[in-house]
Automatic annotation (TrEMBL):
Keyword DNA-binding set for record: yes
A Pfam family reported for this protein in Swiss-Prot or TrEMBL: Rrf2
Domain of life: Bacteria
Name the UniProt record assigns to this protein: Rrf2 family transcriptional regulator
Keyword Mitochondrion: no
Organism: Roseiconus nitratireducens
Gene Ontology MF annotations: DNA binding; DNA-binding transcription factor activity
InterPro entries listed in its UniProt record: TR_Rrf2-type_CS, Tscrpt_reg_Rrf2, WH-like_DNA-bd_sf, WH_DNA-bd_sf
TM region positions: none
Keywords tagged on the record: DNA-binding
């Protein structure tokens, strides 16, 4: 599996926000990771729609996690942003290949997906968050 840039930026944004005790903003995230503000703004909108962050407008506004990091499961975030995570189309589509009905490769790859998903579903945002001190040294 290779994640899209969108998912990469979403995970980085969540990690950044998990190190903050107060609201932050899109420009801070973009600056730290040297990513365009427009890209992060799109990611923030998607994460807000999915319920992972809150985006507050106006004076005193900004962005913050909508859930504790311990409750944000990486596998779920990845699946919601990526959509289809299948290694091959035949894993969830009938008649994708002429040998599909007896293909052993399909079974192997389906098992690999199952193991990967189970592992990612066992990891929370809290498990991968750097310390604020580590992030601040990057600047």
């Amino acid at each position: 599996m290779k994640l899209t840039t969108q998912t990469d930026y979403a995970l980085r944004t969540l990690m950044f926000l998990a190190t903050r005790s107060s609201r932050s903003n899109v420009a801070d995230v973009a600056s730290l990771f040297s990513i365009s503000v427009n890209h992060i703004a799109k990611v923030v909108n998607q994460l807000a729609r999915l319920g992972y962050i809150r985006s507050i407008r106006g004076v005193g506004g900004g962005i913050e996690l909508a859930q504790p990091p311990e409750e944000i499961i990486l596998g779920e975030v990845i699946e919601q942003i990526e959509g289809d995570l299948h290694l091959l189309d035949c894993i969830d589509t009938e008649d994708a290949c002429v040998i599909q009905s007896f293909c052993k490769l399909k079974k192997v790859l389906a098992k690999a997906e199952e193991v990967q998903k189970a592992y990612l579903d066992s990891v929370t945002l809290a498990d991968v968050v750097p310390t604020r001190r580590q992030l601040d040294k990057v600047r």
